[in-house]
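Progress narrative, work stream C.
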Amino acid sequence: MKFALVNPAWSFQGSTYFGCQEPHYPLELLFAFDKIKEGGHDPILIDAQVEKLTAAQVKRRLDEFHPNFLVIPTAPSYLFWRCPPPELRVPRKWFAELGDGAVKVAIGPHPSATPSATLRKLNCDVAMRGEPDETLVQLASRPWTEIDGCCWKDENGVHLSPSLAVTDMRGLGTLSFDDYNVEAHQHRHHVFSGCGRGAELEFARGCPWNCTFCNKTLFRNKFRERDVDAVLAEVDNLMARGVSYIYWIDEIFGVGKNVRRLLEELRHRPISIGLQTRIDLWDEEALDLLGQAHCISMECGIESITDEGRDELNKNCRMSTERLSRLLIYAKERIPWVQANLILTDHDNRDEICTWQKNLKKYGVWVSEPVPMFPYPGTPLYTQMFGPPDDQAWERAHHYYTGMFREKDYSDIQEPHPARIEDLECTC
C-alpha cells in the first residue's frame, strides 16, 4: 500500500492562532513514515510548508505516486497540537484539492477531540484519535475496528472509536531524515538573534501535571521518555546535515530520569538547544548543566504570579513566586534568552504584574504580557465550562474566546481582528 503524508502550506490569516507561523518539522509524519516503511509499505512525505509548494504542485507529485491513503494533519507540527488553529480551513482546502482516489485520513487535535465533526467538515474518510505514529500503518493491514482511535465513515454511517492511540516511545527508533529536506529548514524556533540552521526534535512526550488550560488530555498526555541513544543519533544525523540548533518540542522538558544523561552528552557536541519547561523543575546545579549543554533559549510557564492563581490553574507548584524569580534570574546568567510566560487570571493584579515584569527585565529575563486562555475542546478548562466536547465544541470555544477578549485585547502575537470560525472554514 502507498501512503502520502502531506504537511500543507499553512496560512493563519484571520485566525486566533498564537503559535509560531514559521515552518517546523512535522515529527508526527516523520515517525509515521518510518513505521509505514517498517511495515513493508511505500510512503512519501511532502512538506509543502517548508518547501513552499502549492497544492497544485503537490498534486502533480501525488498523481505520479498514486497513493492509497492521503494523510493530512489538522495542526502545524506536534509542537502546536496543544495550541492549533481552531478552524479547519487549511486541511479542508488541501483534502479537497489532493484527495482524488485515495482514502483521506485526518490526524491531529481536531479528530482527537471531535472526530465526527472533523469527518464532516473535511469530507474525509478516516479521523485518527490520539497519536498516529504507530496506528497509520495499521490502516493497510488490520480491521479498522481493531485500531486504537480509528474513526471512519462509510455507506453505513459514522463509526467512532472511544479509544485514544498512545505511542510506545521506546519503539519509535531513530529518525534518519534521509527522505526529508533538512537543508530547506532554516528557522531556529524561539531564537531571536544570530544565524544558523534549526531543527526540532522530541525527547519526551506528555506531562505528569494536569494544568486546566493545557490541551494535551486527548493526545500526548501520559509522560514517556524516548531512548537516549536513539535521540542522540538523531542529533548526530542532523548535525551531519548542517543543523546547529535543536529545539526540543517536549511538553515539559526536564521531568524524566534521563534528562541529565542527555544534557551531559549534549555538552560535548557543538550544537545549541532551546526548550519549554517549568522553572520549578530546576535548581541551581541543574541550571548550570543546562547552560553547559549550550542551551540558548528557555521558555518557562509561570502562568500566575500568585499562589492563588497557580492553584486555580492546577499548576501544583510548590515554590513561592520569590523562589521562581530567583531561579529565572539565575538561569539568565547562564542562558542567553530566558522567558517567563503569563496567563490572565482573576487573582493577578495588573500593577503587581507590571512591577514583577520590570524587576525581572532588569536582570534580562523577558516576561510576556498575560495571554488569554483559549478553552480548547478536551482541556480541563473546556470540560469545566461546557462539559465533554461535542460536534459544536470548536465553535463554542471560539465564540467564547472572541466574545470574552475582543474588548480586553488579544495577545500581541495574534491577529487583532480574528474572523468568525464559521467564516474561516468556508474560505478555500
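Work stream C, second folded protein:
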Amino acid sequence: MALIIFDFDGVLADTLNDLIQFGQEVCDELGIKHAVNKDDLSNLEIMSFATFGRACEVPEHLVDEFVQRCLKRFAEKESPPAIFNGLSDIVRNFAIKNKLAIITTNSSQNVNAFLIEHGLDECIHAVFGIDIPGSKAQKISIARDQFSADSERESVFMIGDSLSDVLAAKEASVTSIAVTWGHQSLEHLLRGDPDYVVHYPLDLIEVIERTA
C-alpha cells in the first residue's frame, strides 16, 4: 500500500481558464492595470494564489485581498471545475489499495465540492487546503505520519504540476511525480529534478505500481 498525494489545480482540476478569468476580474476590481495570462502562472517559483497575485502586479498590501476574492469566486462558481480526462477512473483505481490525499493552495471547501461533483469524495482520505496551517512540505509530512504504514520514501508519492510541488516533495523526502498537463512547462518542472515526469494520466498507474 502506498500513500498517494495529489496537488489539486492543474493536476486533478482543470482550472487554468478559471484562474486567468478570476485573476483578471479581481485585478480589475482592485484597480490593478495588468492583463492576466498563462505566463503569470507558468513561471512561478512557488505556486499559490498569493504568488499569482504578485505576478499580476498586485501590491503587497492587497495580496491577501486578492487571494480571498479569487477563492470566493471558486466557491461561488455555479459548478466545480472539470476533472482532467481519465483521472476519475485513475483515482478510483488507486483508492482500492492505497491511501489518497490532496494538498493544495486552494481551499478545502472548494476541493470537497469538486470531489462530490465528480463522485470521488469517498476515495480521498484527507484534504489539506490553504485553510490548514503549514507549508506544503509540512502537510506532506503530516499526511505521511497519519496515513503511511512506514516512513519509507518509496511508499509516499507527491503528484504535482509545479516546481514548488516537486521541491516540497524533496523537502519532505517523498517521491516526486511531475505532470505536464498542468500550469507549468516541462522545462520549468525539470529545474526541480523530479523523480518521475509523466505526460498522460495513465502513466501515473505504471509509475506507482512499478515503484510502490
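The longest helix spans residues 16-30. No further action is required on this item.
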